[in-house]
Design goal:
outer membrane lipoprotein receptor (LolB), chain A, 4 helices, alpha+beta, single chain
């Protein structure tokens, strides 16, 4: 999901459920403040994309993220999208602007990340983009021990949301030229910490003449717990000198 700073309640879409607009804005403000104090967290993600011609891509990710030390360890499992010779399961360590990528059994490459997003190590919000709330139809379900925010956008609403967002954001490079049909995002939030515990997204869009259906789920945990995401010394030593550019 896109990472963004504070959000506002719907202005072009609609809001219903257990929160009025002031209460929803307050929830998002409190959430932004909580994420500003975020140092570490873990995340598990699963995504599947199915094209109408039968192609299917699946990816899962299990990550440990240390924002303070700018370190990340991510275990990937992929099918339908790996390059020739690339393993279907591999580990990537990121240290500031350098990645150490597993390319085979006990084989590692050093990869300078020349286009790292300046906000990569600032998780102000793991949830929706501000404009998605502005243009989408939002429903809030306060269940006591969790708050569930469901945001739905049709194709026109999603296009407006993207147009309203800063198009200089590198995170949006891959969505330009996509004809959106529908997007539904379901965010589960812990009301005591104001942090996300789960995010689910289903979407349908057209790209290069093909309709693609996407399902995405991310579970977030271990906020501000002790996490070691540093690359082991033997990995760094083995990767030195490979210097692959991406």
């Amino acid at each position: 999901m896109l990472v963004t700073a504070g959000c506002l309640g719907p202005s072009e879409g609609s809001l219903d459920g257990d929160y009025n607009e002031d209460e929803f804005d307050s929830l998002l403000d409190e959430q932004t403040a909580a994420y500003e104090e975020l140092d570490t967290y873990t995340a598990e993600m699963e995504m599947q994309m199915d094209a109408e011609e039968g192609q299917s891509v699946t990816m899962s990710m299990d990550g440990d993220i240390d924002l303070v030390n700018e370190q990340m360890k991510v275990e990937y499992a992929m099918s339908g999208a790996t390059a020739p010779g690339q393993p279907n399961q591999f580990v990537v360590y990121i240290d500031a602007d350098t990645a150490y990528m597993e390319v085979g059994d006990d084989e590692w490459e050093e990869v300078p990340l020349e286009q790292v997003d300046d906000g990569m190590w600032e998780a102000d919000d793991l949830g929706g983009e501000e404009s998605m709330y502005d243009w989408g139809d939002v429903h809030v379900d306060d269940r006591g021990d969790e708050v569930v925010v469901t945001t739905e956008l049709d194709g026109d609403q999603m296009e407006e949301a993207i147009d309203e967002t800063d198009l200089d954001d590198p995170a949006l490079d891959d969505v330009e030229g996509v004809d959106w049909h529908s997007v539904k995002m379901v965010e589960t939030i812990d009301p005591e910490t104001n942090m996300h515990t789960n995010i689910e997204v289903t979407a349908s869009f057209e790209e290069r003449g093909q309709t693609i259906d996407m399902e995405y789920e991310m579970t977030i945990d271990d906020y501000n717990e002790d996490i070691d995401a540093s690359a082991p010394e033997e990995v760094v030593e083995q990767a030195e000198g490979s210097n692959t550019q991406i």
